[in-house]
Every structure is written in structure tokens, then in C-alpha cells.
Amino acid sequence: MQDKNFDTLAHKFAKNIYGTPKGDIRAAVVWRDLQLALTELGDKPLRVLDAGGGFGFFSQKLAALGHEVILCDISAEMLSLAQAQIDSAERDLNIRLVHSPIQALTLAEYGQFDLILCHAVAEWLTDARTTLSQLIELLKPSGLFSLMFYNKEAMRFHSLVSGNFDYVAAEFKIKKKVGLTPTHPLFIDDVRGWFDDWNMELVSQSGVRVIHDYLKHCQPQGFDYAKLLEMELIYSQREPYISLGRYVHFIGRG
């Protein structure tokens, strides 16, 4: 099994994912979910693993709250970006950088964690279920697993409303892949089934970008992106909007 390595796309990834309105939505929805879920673990420093966390957007936010974080990624360039941001932070951040595939993380070397993050990683793996099953072996009893994955049904729906019928009929197989288009999107029901198999309770379910990606090209006069963000937060935890999220964010409790 081989992870997607973003070494050659690191700066483009950082800009496109968190330097845009869609990045603001992603950050707001996931951070809201995490803050609510973490209240269950009490007011204490936590051990956090950010598996495949890139430059550590959420690692840095969690470390700023006083938590101990291990940030693991296969991309040396991503970790270089992370180190630069950690060095320039206003306060010391307890973040250890690990240059490694997440499949190589072991209980013997790294111990157990109160919280494991795995965001926008599963859809790049040829066998996500096996990798994630290995990952949650590092979770403490009653610990939290935060998984955000690319939603295949939303990918299909977006292509349909865009009129890309040939793309849908070909099951999304094209000769030239766009660099940041995930290669192995997942169905929500399949991932819910994995959580059941792992005996994990789903404590939070949200769609990420349930509105943004379906907006018409021409916006009404005075269109307000702040209002869009507000609506994303309101509808992100309601059906049918969860199932329309370009990404879906699950938090499970072991």
C-alpha cells in the first residue's frame, strides 16, 4: 500500500485547502465538531496523533490549547511547512514531527492517544479500511477518532449537476487526474459500517461544504461569504445535507 505523497504539491495544497473560502468552511466545521467532542474528555492535557496531517493546521490549534501532539506525514515538504509555522507561532507548541507513512506507526513506539485525527487521508489509500483499523489500535479506551473523508456520492452528485455525465458513466475514470482530486473516494454507508465493526460509537457526524460546491456561478448582488459560512455551520449536521457534503467528518468514541 502506498500513500499519496504531496511533496511536489505542498505549497499548492496549503494554499488551495486552507487559503480559500472553502478552506474556511472546512476549518470551521471540523473545529466546531472537535471542540464539542473534546468536552467529553475533560479539562486536561491530551495526547493527540495527527495522522497524515500535512502542515498541521489542527495540530497547531490543539497544541495552542496545551495538548501534546504528534504530527505524522509521509511528505517531508509538508512537515517543513509545519516546522516553519511552529517556529513562528506566538507561543511554544508541543508538537513532535514524524516523517513516516501512517501505516508504520506502532503502539510500541508511540503509545496510545486520547484523540486521533485522520483528515483527508483515507481517500488517497488503496485500502483505507485496513490502514484505519491499524490506526485506531493506538487509541486509548474511550478515546476519540476524528475521520474526515472525501464523499463519493457527493462527488457523483456534483458531477451530475455540472452536466459531466460521461465522467459519471465512466465511474470517474479519466486519462489525466487533477493533482488534488482524490483517487479513492468513499461511500458514507461503508465508513459507517467500519465504525460499527470497530465497536465505535459515532458521537458526531457533519457534512463539510454542503452548500459551497453547489452554488450557482452567478451570485446575487451583495452575496456575503460570512453568511455562507453561517449557513454551512447550520446545515452541516442535518440530513439530507450531511450526505451532500463534499467531505464528511465523523468522530467516533472507542
TrEMBL record:
Q: List the source organism.
A: Shewanella nanhaiensis
Q: Which residues form the signal peptide?
A: none
Lineage, broadest ranks = Bacteria, Pseudomonadati, Pseudomonadota, Gammaproteobacteria, Alteromonadales
Gene3D superfamilies reported in the protein's UniProt record: Vaccinia Virus protein VP39
Instruction: Give the superkingdom in one word.
Output: Bacteria
Could you tell me which residue ranges the Methyltransferase type domain spans? Answer: 49-146
The UniProt record gives the binding positions of S-adenosyl-L-methionine as: 26, 52-53, 73, 119
- Name of the molecule in the record: tRNA 5-carboxymethoxyuridine methyltransferase
A biological-process GO annotation: methylation
